[in-house]
Fold this sequence. Notes:
Largest sheet: 10 strands, mixed
Distance between the termini: 67 Å
Number of strands: 27
CATH architecture of the domain at 235-309 and 381-442 and 455-532: 4-Layer Sandwich
Strand content: 15-25%
Structural class: alpha+beta
CATH superfamily of the domain at 235-309 and 381-442 and 455-532: Aminohydrolase, N-terminal nucleophile (Ntn) domain
Radius of gyration: 26 Å
Helix content: 25-40%
Amino acid sequence: MRKWVARGGFALLGLVLLAAIGLATWEPFFAEPGRAPATEQTYSAEIVRSEFGVPHIYGKTDADVAYGVAIAQSEDDFFTLQDVLAMARGRYGAIAGEDGAAVDFVYHLLDARGTAQRHYGNLPADTRALFEAYATGLNQYASEHPGEIKLARLFPVTGEDVAAGFALRQPFFFGLNGVIEPLVKGEPLRPEFGPPIPSSAPAAAPSADVDGEAVPRTTASRALPLHMGEDGAMAGSNAFAIAPEKSGDGVTRLVSNSHQPLRGGVAWYELVVESGEGWHFAGANFPGSPFPFLGHNRDLGWTNTVNRPDLVDVYQLTLDESGTRYRLDGEWRDLETRTVTLPVKVGPLVLPIRRTVHRSVHGPVIINDRGAFAIRYGGMDSVAQLDAYYRLNKARDLAEWRTILARMAIPSTNFIYADKAGNIAMFYNAAIPDRQQGPDWRSVLPGDRTDLIWQDMVDFDRIPQLVNPASGWIFNANNAPFSAAGPGSDLSPGDFAPELGIETKTTNRARRAAKLMAETPVIDRANLERIKYDTGYERTGYVAQMLDEVAALDLKAEPDLARAQALLATWDMTADSKGAADALALLMIKDFMSAEYQNKTWPDAREKLAAAAEHLTTHFGRLDPPMSDLLRLRQGTVDLPLDGGSDTLRASTTWDVHDDGRLALRHGDSFLMFVEWAPGARVRSQSIQPYGAAITRPGSPHFADQTPLFVRHELKPVHFWRADALANAIRRKTVTNR
């Protein structure tokens, strides 16, 4: 009997071990194998590294350069590139666990792969050649560095894989996550996406999920790490353009001041590209792109700030008793339903989690306890932006550039433009649905009427745009487009239909920029730098409300908290680390900003004051440490003081709280570029990044070599022209796939 029990125990142990081995190894074999680009094309590129390691990539053709971009970026950040490619293949959960599986769920929900498959082949041949070359470079690096690969069978990849990544990530720049997350969780929508779904909404018929769950609760309900910042797209960016008649020296200036996460899939990567086919551009891209998204060429340049147009409509469907059909115009239609497998890494194991995704003629469908809801959004089922960005890179004047932007192929983001001819402009770029008048498009719409399912975008001429205003300056700081160029030059909100869904909110950054620029008679280089690095707050809006609520607290019975209240009352309204109350204000203000911009629950003033005071006294032994002791820029062994705050023009927006109580910047000022066209001179530019070119290579000298300049408000030369790049080169090499 004992032998039988022992044998049975060993057998059970063996089964457990086999199951563990299976869970540790199944995912790469289950995943669809990667494919190499179907081309025998040979590529060759020269990569010249500047004194800060920034790659300058040269090639005979544009495709040669794109191949070189992939090699250079892999050398600096192959770690993040793999994450981006895993997202584009629906396999990120095998790397990042539950958070990654949430991305994979959205990948399937939005049909990112299907979008790429349907439309990639219709792109112009030279655009597809760019993406195939880029994929070839990625595959080559992976083949030559197998020890760096963190997910088996991720490579090879094709241009279509890269295109699928674009289809997945683009909607999150205008806040689609703010709709998907609450719907998946079964929570009310935030007010900026319409009024809450009523709790009395009729319950939907059960989903056909294989595990009986109507909502993918264990993975897809996680936060979606695809948006611009911790609190969504409104987390920020600044942009400035100054016409020659306003600059004091006849120079046209453009300032790109994006606020992105400092690491990860939407962190900027700086590069300069030049080909024998006329592609010559300096700027930055995100991992997974063969071309820059912003910057300048010889003749013109642009930068972007995230806008928040109403590009998303939500429809409530009526399902039949089976939950497999929905009613439309009095008839029942089959709900498209398919089951997908999400890999979820848990320790050494990867669990296969089965989930169901649905679709109607409206778009993706989410079923929760409140009902069935379909989503339709601007730019859905399109990869046209791949060609549009490429063409913008090569445009030569405002007319050509504007014609490309007018395609409405790039679903969102403001464009601030300047060129060597002295033109400056602002375009509230947005693929806004062409909605009929009458319905409340900010509410949840009935899903049983085809007349509410819009098909086209509004004409480009209907969106807000401003070219060469009389003021001679333009800015945007994630505010409504109706404050951009000062009194007498700004657009009027009344000239734009409410169905366009143009946001009306402003930011402290916008208030400060409008004030500082309007009161500055000559915006020369020095004044422009002063404005860009401003750390001030206006005592209005959420800032004033926070201060008033703290001042109104009755803290007679709490002397310690009363001291914090009294200190905050002395705050000088800046985040420059000079005032005694700056650190306290920095800790306080972020949550109030988020409540204002994201329509979150308004914070309790007493609770926030108490938490900030406790943090400072616990970690610093005082309420008034220098703010620069609290706020730090940290990368490896580098640990430097920072200025700026949440929603100041010098942006230190969000941070990680380290064990020592310091706030390590996570999101804020990132890629910063000043571009200048002087009369009769070639374009000149300078830039800076918070860390360095080799952002995930701790052993590289360029892991954090830009940090001292960044904290001192200093810039480095871009070396746009090849002669300058070669004169300042520290490394040169030629790469080829022969």
